Amino acid sequence: MKKVFITAVIALTSSGSIFAQSSATASATSTIISPVTMSLVTNMNFGNISVSPASGGTVVFSPGSTRSSTGGVTLPSTAGSVSAAKFTVAGAPAYTYAISLPSSATLSDGSSHSMTINSFTSSPSGTGTLSAGGTQTLNVGATLNLAAAQTPNAYTNSTAVPVTVNYN
Q1: How far lies 66's CA from each of 42, 56, 107, 129, 145, in Å?
Q2: Each residue of 133-168: pLDDT tens digit?
Q3: Which fold has domain 36-167?
């Protein structure tokens, strides 16, 4: 009898733990938000610039459309059209976004003369926050580098100056 009793106890103990299981369910949801977009309002224009035949320099252009010059560069009182690049960023209200600026760009007069733009800056800088209405203005400035005796002419960029925004 002891043998049967012991076997029965082992069988009851083993069978109790084999059938112990539980399950539950969960639902899944997702919310699709408006994509972040950017549209050009105003192109960047450094305006009228004069450069010394003996010394080059720079025009430092802030996102707020103020210019300053260094070296042999002067800014005449007849400034011409001066404007920082201006964009409207739109998307989901109150969301933040990262701003990516190019490292450099080249302006050319259509022949063999060129100038480099670098040191791009923006306002807001680095990260922006969309308003409760889902928009924000993004202004971009840069530094224009001129050689001594830079050939007088109208200079433009042949490729776009890429400014990119992405949600954080």
Answers
A1: 15, 20, 20, 24, 16
A2: 999 999 999 999 999 999 999 999 977 889 999 999
A3: Immunoglobulin-like (2.60.40)
Domain-wise residue ranges, the chain: 36-167
Pairing of strands 164-167, 96-100: antiparallel
Block residue for tokens 């005796």: 149
pLDDT of residue 159: 78
Choose among 114, 26, 7, 123: nearest CA to 66: 123
First and final C-alpha spacing in the chain: 74
pLDDT band for position 20 (cuts 50, 70, 90):
confident
Higher pLDDT, 84 or 8: 84
> Which helix (DSSP H) or strand (DSSP E) does residue 17 occupy?
helix 2-18
Query: What three-state secondary structure class fits 26?
Result: coil
State the sign of the Cα–Cα–Cα–Cα dihedral 142, 147, 152, 154: negative
Q: Which band of pLDDT confidence, cut at 50, 70 and 90, is reported for residue 2? A: low
